[in-house]
Design brief:
113 residues, alpha+beta, VC0802-like, 4-stranded antiparallel β-sheet, 4 helices, 21% strand, elongated
């Protein structure tokens, strides 16, 4: 892995008001969602979003394995996952966000900037 191009970041939802506005918009279009067979909308005012990013991820498939194994060992459940060529984002319960950040920083200490 390219040791100069990896970072672990954590950010929380900007505000409970913004979350509320997002949920309202989603509920307003819920008829369309139900027609597609989707379940109810759920939200949490405290969600921790963590990102592991770096150009070296394009060629190193073990990054995802390291993320999920480290969080699993710490007993942290991943709520959602999104990926790109250079980033893996996960969302965890907000009260576990700081712990998850520490776990991932420790896991990727060998490749941090």
């Amino acid at each position: 892995m390219n040791r100069r191009h990896h970072a672990v970041r954590c950010a929380k939802v900007a505000s409970v008001w913004e979350l509320g506005q997002s949920v309202v918009c989603t509920y307003e279009s819920s008829d369309r969602w139900r027609k597609l067979g989707c379940g109810p909308v759920r939200s949490s005012p405290a969600v921790g979003k963590l990102s592991v990013s770096g150009i070296g991820m394009r060629s190193h498939t073990s990054v995802g394995i390291r993320i999920f194994a480290a969080l699993a060992r710490a007993g942290i459940n991943v709520e959602t996952i999104s990926t790109s060529e250079v980033r893996v984002n996960v969302a965890v319960e907000g009260y576990k966000g700081q712990t998850a950040l520490e776990v991932l920083r420790k896991e990727f200490a060998d490749v941090q900037k």
